[in-house]
């Protein structure tokens, strides 16, 4: 049997990934602040705010520890998908509290979850982890300092994790760049004021030029990786021509 935990399953890529894995026979648990409308006998929804460490860590431990260490699952997967663009402002205008929230959601939560899954999985289980990355991890986008910073740090954290466990052939982690996906984040970016958000014209052009990809297409890459028998670290960008 196969079990996957996905963050941010109320919409967008998280929801699409959950549906794709369910169609392939996986058991899936999803987490988000909002309720999920996924209706499937193999899906469990956890209403959790990943920005609140004091509540989500004990809740995840309570709900998932036994799943991860259950010998009936020969394959375990973690998809660190939940993320926020944060305030779309110049760096000096960012609010301290909101800055802390985005770093917790985009970086601290997925790094902690990665360690949690590895620590509690059985030695014989195949563990697959996907960190949803972005071109923002290596491209400086004005108005997205926190988003760029957290995505870059998450990518490096994944590389360090892979290096620490390079001898474990049952573990694989991939940093995956889905490109310009048609999600709520794109709507948020497009609807900002061009006077306040320095990268407004760039993101508006993605939509105006029909460059947005449906999440249902992108997540097939994710599902294929989770079902493969590779090991170690890898990085991939979505190729619309494949």
Structure description:
This protein has a single domain (2-181, 214-237), classed as Rossmann fold, CATH 3.40.50. The chain has seven helices and seven strands; from the N terminus they run E-H-E-E-H-E-H-E-H-E-H-H-H-E. It has helices at residues 12-23, 53-68, 96-120, 145-164, 184-190, 200-208, 215-227; strands at residues 2-7, 27-32, 43-47, 75-80, 126-132, 171-177, 232-237. The radius of gyration is 17 Å and the shape is globular. The model has no long low-confidence stretch (mean pLDDT 90).
Mean pLDDT: 90
Estimated share of beta-strand residues: 15-25%
CATH architecture: 3-Layer(aba) Sandwich
Distance between the termini: 29 Å
Question: Which strand order do you get reading across the main beta sheet?
Answer: 3-2-1-4-5-6-7
- Characterize the largest beta sheet: strand count, sense, and whether it forms a barrel: 7 strands, parallel
What is the SS-derived class? alpha/beta
Structure annotation, total helices:
7
Helix content: 40-55%
Broad shape:
globular
Q: Which fold name is given in CATH as the topology?
A: Rossmann fold
**Number of domains as seen in the coordinates:** 1
Which CATH first-tier class would you pick? Alpha Beta
Number of separate strands: 7
CATH superfamily heading: NAD(P)-binding Rossmann-like Domain
* Element-level helix/strand string: EHEEHEHEHEHHHE
The whole-angstrom Rg is 17 Å
Low-pLDDT residue intervals, each spanning 5 or more residues: none
């Amino acid at each position: 049997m196969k079990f996957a935990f996905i963050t941010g399953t109320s919409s967008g890529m998280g929801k699409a990934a959950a549906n794709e894995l369910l169609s392939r026979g996986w058991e899936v648990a999803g987490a988000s602040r909002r309720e999920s409308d996924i209706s499937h006998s193999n899906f469990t929804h956890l209403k959790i705010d990943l920005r609140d460490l004091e509540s989500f860590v004990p809740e995840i431990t309570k709900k998932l520890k036994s799943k991860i260490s259950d010998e009936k699952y020969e394959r375990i997967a973690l998809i660190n998908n939940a993320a926020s663009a944060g305030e779309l402002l110049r760096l000096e205008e960012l609010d301290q509290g909101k800055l802390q929230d985005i770093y917790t959601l985009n970086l601290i939560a997925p790094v902690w979850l990665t360690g949690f899954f590895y620590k509690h999985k059985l030695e014989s289980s195949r563990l697959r982890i996907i960190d949803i990355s972005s071109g923002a991890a290596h491209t400086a986008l004005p108005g997205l300092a926190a988003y760029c910073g957290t995505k870059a740090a998450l990518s490096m954290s994944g590389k360090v994790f892979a290096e620490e466990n390079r001898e474990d052939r049952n573990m694989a982690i991939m940093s995956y760049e889905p490109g310009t996906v048609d999600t709520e984040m794109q709507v948020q970016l497009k609807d900002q004021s061009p006077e306040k958000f320095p990268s407004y014209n760039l993101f508006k052009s993605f939509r105006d030029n029909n460059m947005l990809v449906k999440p249902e297409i992108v997540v097939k890459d994710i599902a294929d990786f989770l079902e493969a028998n590779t090991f170690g670290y890898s990085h991939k960008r979505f190729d619309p021509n494949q």
